[in-house]
Amino acid sequence: MIVRAESPTEYILHHMTHLKVGDGFWALHLDSLFFSWLTGLTFLLLFKYVAERATSGVPGTLQNLVEMVVEFVDRQVQDSFHGRDPMIAPLALTIFCWVFLMNLMDLVPVDLLPFIATLEGIPYLRVVVSADLNGTFGLSIPVFFLIFFYAIRYKGFWGFLRDLLTHPFGPWFIPFNLLLRIVEELARPVSLALRLFGNLYAGELIFILIALLPFWGQFFLGLPWAVFHILVITLQAFIFMVLTIVYLSLASATEEH
Predict the structure, then answer these.
(1) For position 257, what pLDDT does the model report?
(2) Catalytic status, residue 195
(3) Is residue 146 included in any domain, yes or no?
(4) Which pLDDT does position 171 carry in this prediction?
(5) pLDDT at residue number 191
(6) pLDDT of residue 198 exceeding 90
(7) 196 neighbors 238 (Cβ within 8 angstroms)
């Protein structure tokens, strides 16, 4: 176990401190960058491994699991995205699996990886990328730009501009329309990022508080919370994926739809 600070407050602050370079707005959280790359690479290599060894005969457990995830995501895309686009299903699958793996890091014992890091001379380490506001905004901001990309792709630039200026009150209320659309568009990435961050930050903090208890208390409180948290991390990955699909569907919808 990691050597604890002199007080519970210092112990909590130690676990909530990022390994970073720089200060202020331009600070880089190296631990969030590392674990986002690690979970993303895990997803790619795992699915590549299963795809290369897939069989039409009796599938193994891992192939069954991957096929279930792919079919589940594909069903959500068919239900939520009105239209046909070859990018949506792979995008949705990537979002769901990547966010789920980031969230899953919250189930790693809170002292384990920080202790290993101290052996290598690394003073701080946070492993849950989705409990870092920079990490969740790093996921939601690309969705924000994809919304505009799909709107222009399906409606054309002038169609997108006309929809931006005339919806919902018509061409006589352009300033009001523009103001409402700006608020609406900015609210989407902000809500995506804050929802994911809030749930995982709270979950991480509860695990840290449980780690302050005696061993018997850690077991009897930590195990039920971990089981419940599996539902939370899965649900949050699902919500992030579905909202992304819905936002892109709304952006690509034309009058003909």
Answers:
(1) 42
(2) yes
(3) yes
(4) 77
(5) 94
(6) yes
(7) no
Block residue for tokens 């995501």: 73
Q: How many CA atoms lie within 13 A of 143 on its CB side?
A: 30
How confident is the model at residue 255, as a pLDDT?
A: 57
**Angle of CA points 195, 199, 201, to nearest 5°:** 115
179 domain-assigned: yes
Separation between Cα atoms, residue 159 and residue 145, nearest integer Å: 17
For residue 28, the SS3 value is strand
> Structural domain tally of the chain?
1
- In sequence order, the β-bridge partners of residue 28 are 21
For 116, the token pair is: 């290993």
Enclosing domain of residue 224 = 8-252
Which residue bears the tokens 């070859």?
Answer: 86
> How big is the chain, counted in residues?
257
Identify the band that residue 58 occupies on the pLDDT scale cut at 50, 70 and 90. Answer: confident
The 10s digit of each residue's pLDDT in 2-56 is 445 458 888 888 888 899 988 877 889 999 999 999 999 999 999 999 998 888 7
The answer to whether residue 1 sits within a structural domain is no
| CA separation for the pair 154, 162 (Å, rounded) | 13
Which one is catalytic: 130, 199, 249, 252? Answer: 199
Out of 4, 153, 181, 195, pick the active-site residue: 195
Residues whose CB is less than 8 angstroms from the CB of residue 76 and which lie 6 or more positions away in sequence, other chains included: 92, 241, 242, 245
Would you say residue 3 lies in a domain? no
103 is annotated as an active-site residue: no
